[in-house]
Amino acid sequence: MKKIFISLLALGFIAIGCDTKQKTNEQSAPATEITTDSVVVSNEAFSAVTLNKMFEDPSGNKISFQNILAKHKGAPIVIDVWASWCPDCIKGFPELKNLQQQYPKTAYVFLSLDKTKNKWTEAIAKYDLQGDHYYLNEKMKDEFGQSIQLDWIPRYIVVDAQGNIALKKAIVANDTLLINTLNKIQPSL
């Protein structure tokens, strides 16, 4: 009888510990993130490191990420972090083009992590990528990649009309969460 009592008591402590752990994890979720209709709406902003990172446009002009975003303020933005050497990026271009047709009021910004500017500009022409293009001479794990927690490309980020991150990560252009997010923040047609 004593063994049964001790076993039940131990199970009770384990159950309480699990419940406390679950509540702790729930409390540590970002307060600015709200889930509605299978869409995560976040008021999260880009870090100063991210905003100050300098890119190059096809004409060779330098522009900060902050100014890239400001150029499109007032419209939703789909950011595609990609490279011409990335087979998944190339494979995803048809779906991205479908997305562009479905959401024409959205701005499309392509951030390339190509190894050379020449490969980058060749790929833009070869795949007929429509949108704003910027080149960053960095690898995925360098400063910019770390600042956006980049672990895979392609990486799609959705920014709302106010410049907040509405969706931090999608790896395919037809991701349900990406589409639901665009539906939620898309201006009326």
Question: Which keywords apply here?
Answer:
Glutaredoxin; five-stranded mixed β-sheet; 42% helix; 7 helices; globular; 9 strands; two-stranded antiparallel sheet; 189 residues
Task: Please characterize this protein's 3D structure.
- Helix content is 42%, strand content 22%.
- Strand 6, helix 5 and strand 7 (132-135) form a beta-alpha-beta unit.
- The chain folds into two domains: 1-30; 33-185, Glutaredoxin (3-Layer(aba) Sandwich).
- By secondary structure, it is α/β, with parallel strands linked by helices.
- The chain is globular.
- The longest helix is centred in the N-terminal third of the chain and has 26 residues, at 2-27.
Give the SSE map:
Elements: H1 2-27, E1 33-36, E2 39-42, H2 48-52, E3 54-56, E4 62-64, H3 65-71, E5 77-82, H4 87-102, E6 107-112, H5 117-126, E7 132-135, H6 143-147, E8 155-159, E9 165-170, H7 176-185
Parallel strand pairs: 5-6, 6-7
Antiparallel strand pairs: 1-2, 3-4, 5-8, 8-9
Mean of all residue-level pLDDT scores:
80
For the largest beta sheet, what order do the strands appear in spatially? 7-6-5-8-9
Number of domains: 2
What is the second-level CATH architecture of the largest domain? 3-Layer(aba) Sandwich
Q: Estimate percent helicity.
A: 40-55%
Order of helices and strands: HEEHEEHEHEHEHEEH
Shape: globular
What is the number of helical segments per DSSP (H or I, 4+ residues)?
A: 7
Cα distance, first to last residue? 72 Å
Major sheet: 5 strands, mixed
Kindly provide the name of the CATH class of the largest domain.
Alpha Beta
Low-confidence stretches: 7-42
Strand-residue proportion:
15-25%
Q: What is the CATH superfamily of the largest domain?
A: Glutaredoxin
User: What structural category do the secondary elements indicate?
Assistant: alpha/beta
Query: What's the number of extended β-strand segments?
Result: 9
